[in-house]
Description:
Blueprint: E1 6-8, E2 13-16, H1 37-44, H2 49-67, E3 73-84, E4 89-101, H3 121-125, E5 133-136, E6 157-167, E7 170-179, E8 187-195, E9 201-209, E10 215-216, E11 220-228, E12 231-247, E13 250-261, H4 272-275, H5 297-319, H6 327-342, E14 352-356, E15 363-366, E16 369-373, H7 374-379, H8 383-398, H9 420-423, H10 430-445, H11 454-466, H12 471-474, E17 483-484, E18 487-488, E19 517-519, E20 526-528, E21 575-578, E22 625-627
Parallel strand pairs: 2-5, 14-16
Antiparallel strand pairs: 1-2, 1-10, 3-4, 3-13, 6-7, 7-8, 8-9, 9-11, 11-12, 12-13, 15-16, 17-18, 19-20, 21-22
Helix pairs in contact: 6-8, 8-10, 8-11
Amino acid sequence: MLRPFFAVLSLVCVFAATLLAQTPSATEPQLSTTRDAATQQAAAAAASFDQVIDRAVEREHFFMAQMKNLHPLVETYLQNLKDDKDSGTVVPASDLYFLGRLDMTNGADDRTFTSPTTGGLGKRMLSKLSNVYTMKFLPLGFAQMVVLDDDFQRKFYDFTFVRREFLGEIRCIVLDVAPKKDAGKGRFLGRIWVEEQDYNIVRFNGTYYPHPRSSYYLHFDSWRMNMRPGVWLPSFVYSEESDLKYRIGQTIHYKAQTRLWGYNLKDFKRSSEFTDITVDAPNPVQDQSQKSQDATPIEAQRAWERQAEINVVDRLQQIGLLAPEGEIDKVLQTVVNNVMITNNLDIQPEIHCRVLLTTPLESFTIGHTIVMSRGMVDVLPDEASLAMVLTHELAHIVLGHKLDTKLAFNDRMFFPDERTFERMDFGRIKSEEEAADKKALELINNSPYKDKMATPGLFLKAVQARAPQLKSLIRPHLGDSLLNGDAIRMSPLMTASPNFDPKKTDQIAALPLGGRVKVDPWTDRLELIKTKPVALNSPAEKMPFEVTPFFPFLARLGSTPPVSTPAAAPVTVPATAPASAPSAAPAASDPVSAPATPASAPATAPANAAPTSGPATTPAPEKTPEPDKTASPTAAPSAQ
Length: 640
């Protein structure tokens, strides 16, 4: 059986990823979501252990068929780790970033969004993204971790019942899975969680086994979310190794997050506008209060610039890189309004704020639209820091720094998705950046945030301290970097801030990745994560700019996550021995309490909602008998 695998070559560990860049279809992906009466009755009936396995295998085949019609974006951010003798913890030593579009129809392709290279394997390994790890774009890698087994069959595996437990509000049957001796290489080894309504696998945790000679598989924790009725699709993958030995005296120590989104980009293409039915009245009533006339030269210039802005925003949404307008945009807009009102600014056309869905820290302007990446929103420690970043971009608009109006011609938008970072560049020249810094400081000094710049200055110090190890996180793809050589944006703010000290538990300079923003993988819509703050136990839990595991709260489509997890519903499963109760899931954590909104700010919630890194505590379900293990002669061993 052909199985993608991770190959550790003589000097370089090659991580592979199935990443394709493909223009999304103009129509919504065709998903089979109907459940016939027999299926519904079977799901409702008491299931034996054999039936549970058979249904789970059947649903996994259904999943593979669905994925052939879907082409989501796949983003992987990896941090190589090292021991820090001063703190006694591990810290990032280097990082890598990859973005592409997943395609599971006809194999793989070398097309990707990030830093394409040409030539053979040697040239790829010497690309500017190379460090300790290099990704070779073949049908291997982190994207493969969304698939349990592309040929998942009962004859290849032994299954062992573990227990029942909740993942969020989803009650699951937990099974250990181990490949049989003659199953071939690259089979899944680990644990799966099967939801009890349709028997879809919603989580699997482990590795592939056995590995080929001179090659190794990595451990991963893969999560799926209910995005359509009866359909669970990949959303998050966390991967980690702490002591994988690949050379004499050499080990791999890393952690990585993989995110998927952009499953359905139909709504971003405005196709409904073409089919909307409008009727013109034979004698429409017209407003004669002002005679129609051509635009003045100034109005025409503004309209031309606005056309370029609209073209770019629409194209980025069409690709799936820009989130649709939503809750977080309003929060950003509130902060911008706070600065504009106190500085008596009245800018036309009006300013809008949008969020880029990617992880690298960047912000930029597209005409009068301020864009900030999801990763930037995640790591900013408070509202004043958010104001610092937004005010810098506002300063570009106030100073009249223009968007290249060549983008007003629609044919400029006709390019493959994977060439987006080549064809679009909103970076500024050095003189414009310096002028924007100076103007932004003036605007902040007249804003509600003028006395709260100590934390933003500390954030900039943290960026400066971690930049040598986190080059891929700091490197922008569409805009400008916070750090340009030795020069850092808004550097005068650093003089009034305290020294950056990672050992101080009460000093929060930056947050971990993924703590503020939740992305709906199907619609790309964003919402703020709102949880209660949790006190830190040690400085090691601060984790500024770092990757952490995923623990999403799973819920069925259309349901609202409850305040407390509901009690387990009784389900009959024949067995002979009681099953163990599930372990409690880790509690949510938050390194910083939400600061108060400035007195002059509107009532809209600030973008400093407390982040989270874990789900609510999982309750222990009622004791259930363990199924007959005749279908599971061999218990799955621990993943090696």
